[in-house]
Every structure is written in structure tokens, then in C-alpha cells.
Amino acid sequence: MSSFDVLIVGIGGQGTILASNVIGEACLVEGIPVRGVETHGMAQRGGSVESHVRIGGVHGPLIPPGRADLMIALDLLEGVRYLHYLKAGGSIVANDQTVVPTPVYTQKLPMPARDELLGSLGERDLFLIDAAALAAEAGNPIVQNVVMLGAASRYLPLKESSMREAVARSVPAKTLDLNLKAFDLGRNAVRSE
């Protein structure tokens, strides 16, 4: 298999790291080499978090700018912030919501409007998903990251069954049904080709 690079971006508390762990686990299920790394600033409360997942034959865990095949943006503003990592022709699966950063309040900075953020993404292969609504439909707003994984699974070079098994291996048993429902709702939101 040739390499496939996935950048997952969000803010602290959105489940970015769990999402990267699920993709890595799915690679292990399929016996595909995988490397990954997370970088986080003030991730405990609202800080930027990025996870690099490199599927296939690669040497280092960090995706160079301009090389990501897929970006999974758990927050629309973070998707714009890390857009320089996406390669020409790359795809974005983005949550159609933005958490207002703390400096907007504390320093009275302007907050870009949704249309401005979408305009910054330009002419890209973009799939927007209302992860909050689908997570609520699944039964708990905390599973938005798994909804996003379900949607992104349509773009990943991994089998649906491997992703579902990876979810089962990565979440507590008592939340398995909730998480699998969230995964299915996200996956079904993206029309199969």
C-alpha cells in the first residue's frame, strides 16, 4: 500500500487523540504499518490539538506541510488554521461548528463568521457534517469525534469492519453501543460513491 496521511485537528476535549488512536487501531487490525503523533498546546481547555496519522510505508510520524491526504477537522476554525498541511487535491471532513476561542473574549478579538471560514477553505473537496446533531441523535453529545470518524471512514483506505472493530477496542465497553451508533450515523451521512 502506498502511504496515506491523515491530519486530525480540534481543540482540547474534543477527542482528537481518541480519533487518531481508533484509526491507528484499524491499521493494526488490517496489518498495515502506521505511525502517529499528537501535538498539543493548551489542550486541557480549548487549546489547539493536532494528531498526525501516517498509514502505510512512511518513515517519520509527522506529516510535512502540503502532504496530508485527508484532514478531519473537529472544529471549523481549526480546519482553517491547519489548512496548509493539506495537499492539492486532498479532502476535508469538517464539523460544521466552531468553539469560540478564549482570546476572542479576553482580548475582545474579532471572530470570523462561518461564511468567512468556509471561504478560507476555498475550492476543496469538503464534506461538512453537523456532528453535534448526529451525536445527540446517537444519545450523547460527547461522541461527536466518533461521528466524525464515521464520516471520514468513507475517505480512509481502511475497511468499515476494521474501523468498527477499532472503535470497539478503543472505547469503554459500557459505551460501545453508543459509539457504534455514532460511527454509523456519521458514515451514513456521507453518501457512498
Question: How would you describe what is shown here?
Answer:
The protein has 193 residues and is α/β, with parallel strands linked by helices. It has a single domain, classed as Pyruvate-ferredoxin Oxidoreductase, domain 3, CATH 3.40.920.10. 39% of the residues lie in helices and 23% in strands. The chain is built from eight helices and six strands; from the N terminus they run E-H-E-E-E-H-E-H-H-E-H-H-H-H. Strands 2-3-1-4-5-6 form a six-stranded mixed beta sheet. The relative contact order is 0.18. The mean pLDDT is 91. Keywords: Oxidoreductase, Pyruvate. Its EC number is 1.2.7.8. Residues 12-187 form the Pyruvate/ketoisovalerate oxidoreductase catalytic domain. It catalyses: indole-3-pyruvate + 2 oxidized [2Fe-2S]-[ferredoxin] + CoA = (indol-3-yl)acetyl-CoA + 2 reduced [2Fe-2S]-[ferredoxin] + CO2 + H(+). InterPro entries: Indolepyruvate_Fd_OxRdtase_bsu, IorB_Oxidoreductase, Pyrv/ketoisovalerate_OxRed_cat, Pyrv_flavodox_OxRed_cen.
Give a short overview.
GO terms for molecular function: indolepyruvate ferredoxin oxidoreductase activity. The protein is of the alpha/beta class. It has eight helices and six strands; from the N terminus they run E-H-E-E-E-H-E-H-H-E-H-H-H-H.
Radius of gyration: 16 Å
Indicate the mean pLDDT. Answer: 91
Report the structural category: alpha/beta
Spatial ordering of strands, largest sheet: 2-3-1-4-5-6
- Range of strand content: 15-25%
Number of domains: 1
How would a crystallographer describe the biggest sheet? 6 strands, mixed
Helix content: 25-40%
EC number: 1.2.7.8
Protein name: Indolepyruvate ferredoxin oxidoreductase subunit beta
GO molecular function, one term: indolepyruvate ferredoxin oxidoreductase activity
Subunit structure: Heterodimer of the IorA and IorB subunits.
